[in-house]
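One record is kept unedited as follows:
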Amino acid sequence: MNELALKYGCNPNQKPSRIFMKDGSALPVTVLNGKPGYINFLDAFNSWQLVKELKAATGLPAAASFKHVSPAGAAVYTPLSDTLKKIYFVDDLTLSPIASAYAAARGADRMSSYGDWAALSDICDKETATLLAREVSDGVIAPGYTEEALEILKTKRKGNYNVVQIDPDYVPAPIEHKDVFGITFEQGRNELKIDSELLKELPTKNKNLTEEAKRDLIVSLITLKYTQSNSVCYVKNGQAIGVGAGQQSRVHCTRLAGNKADNWYLRQCPKVLNLPFKKDIRRPDRDNTIDVYISDECMDVLADGQWENFFTEKPEIFTREERRAWLDTMSGVALGSDAFFPFGDNIERAHKSGVEFIAQPGGSIRDDNVIATCDKYNIAMAFTGIRLFHH
């Protein structure tokens, strides 16, 4: 089959809609369940490229959680701590390496991952399907599914959950096209290989990149390759903990992604872990409540008495000073940027979220200021010499 009709395009009024192969060859994907739409396939193809490259670059199982053609999260397999299992709501599950990678990809920014498209570098197994089955998700793409996993996924969303299998050996044409306003754009595919060779130019005084830091910077750069620009990505322990996408200003990307990274770390604070939630609170409601609790809105919510809807007793206020003190213990974070940092203010913001390693193209007329700001905080920064815009 070389084409697949879709219900509609980005919006219900955009008809007709289909995906097809211009050269008449067979599509490299098979729909095993459900009826994926236009945006579903955009997420599926972008997320599949991301996890395939992560697996190739690191040798580790990789997963991504996509929303609106950008990753809400991405991760390679590293063992999850008991704390992370708890805040990702998987402490009651048996996790295989690929299931653990998806738990990390989805768990870093659970609010953004709500209703996501999942991508897996490896065959979807029972453990991953069990995790997917209980989360709010639109669909999944993987190179294959075990029989048991497929049966589990077919029960989701009243049997309508989107399950797509892709040929892992499919190689797209080297030239790609896109139509905008009736005009066809043509460019060579971004086949740039991202590996540790890009991290050799270190203009900062600190030139120490640990192997873990190199892995995390590679995860960051590959994630950025499939994130709508401008984009910045914070990574720790092999997982993206904050992605800032589609901002017109780079410092706004850095702030947005940094705020997400801060929320990820604040959720691990004992004061948050021990919140007295009622037993019947749904996971999405718990996520939203935690996000409010760790924000400046906390005082208003507790003062208004809304806490009774979620907690068995009124929790203590998580003050701004307490939050800052906890965030000051955050360290070892890697940061990637899809284009150069024009000012040192990006570094100042990154430092507040525990960033110790940075990879960015370099080439700004203010590189000296950016380098000096890194030196101020003993941050090791690599100039990759490559830009990763994605539109």
